[in-house]
């Protein structure tokens, strides 16, 4: 849909996306111990990875899209040269305190059970996984027919898929938490309460058990 450069430009020019990214980064940085290493899963063009590295966190990046990887090499060229950012061909190629996955990366994956089992081999004991996912309760999507037609699926199964080229799925926190067990427990959901109706993204924090 976009080249890496186009995606990078679009997302940085969106005020809403910048604010969401800042909130996610701030949450991750507060959770990370001093000098702790992190895997940026689905790192895109390296925007988050660059921020983690700037705060002294050795950062591994996994990105399956070739277009994104190519632009990441440009955007993070200095950090890659200094080895504060390291590209990996598989998320299993490192061991870290934390895994982060921003901007709905996991909404492109239908089954999270295998993924969290892999994360359990990457994240050290008492480490964490922090993910940003599309919020299935966001009322701003109520204007779309696909949202209204899937309300029953959401209530009954806690998940549904949208028939589209991008194969986007929606999940409730409890469904993701069930997939993460027994390796991780859901520790925090942000936002809470009425905020779930007004925020497009929700942040889920999982602690390694």
> N-to-C SSE series?
HHEHEHHEEHEHHEEHEHE
Note the overall shape: globular
Based on the coordinates given, report the CATH architecture: 3-Layer(aba) Sandwich
Identify the CATH homologous superfamily.
Vaccinia Virus protein VP39
CATH topology: Rossmann fold
Compute the number of helices: 10
Low-confidence stretches: none
What structural class do you assign from the helix and strand content?
alpha/beta
Integer count of domains? 1
Distance between the terminal alpha carbons, to the nearest Å? Answer: 38 Å
Helicity range of the residues? 25-40%
CATH class: Alpha Beta
Kindly estimate the percentage of residues that lie in beta strands according to DSSP: 15-25%
Across the major sheet, the strand order is: 3-2-1-4-5-9-8
Q: Mind summarizing the main beta sheet?
A: 7 strands, mixed
Number of E-type strands: 9
The whole-angstrom Rg is 17 Å
Round the mean pLDDT to the nearest integer and report it.
95
Protein model, in words:
- The strands form two sheets. The chain has a seven-stranded mixed beta sheet, with helices on both faces. The protein has a two-stranded antiparallel sheet with strand order 6-7.
- The mean pLDDT is 95.
- It is an alpha/beta fold and 209 residues long.
- It is globular.
- It has ten helices and nine strands.
- The protein has one domain (4-137, 172-208): Vaccinia Virus protein VP39 (Rossmann fold, 3-Layer(aba) Sandwich).
What is the strand and helix layout of this fold?
Elements: H1 4-13, H2 15-31, E1 38-41, H3 47-54, E2 59-62, H4 66-75, H5 77-82, E3 85-87, E4 96-101, H6 113-120, E5 123-134, H7 145-149, H8 151-157, E6 159-161, E7 169-171, H9 173-180, E8 184-190, H10 195-198, E9 201-208
Parallel strand pairs: 1-2, 1-4, 2-3, 4-5
Antiparallel strand pairs: 5-9, 6-7, 8-9
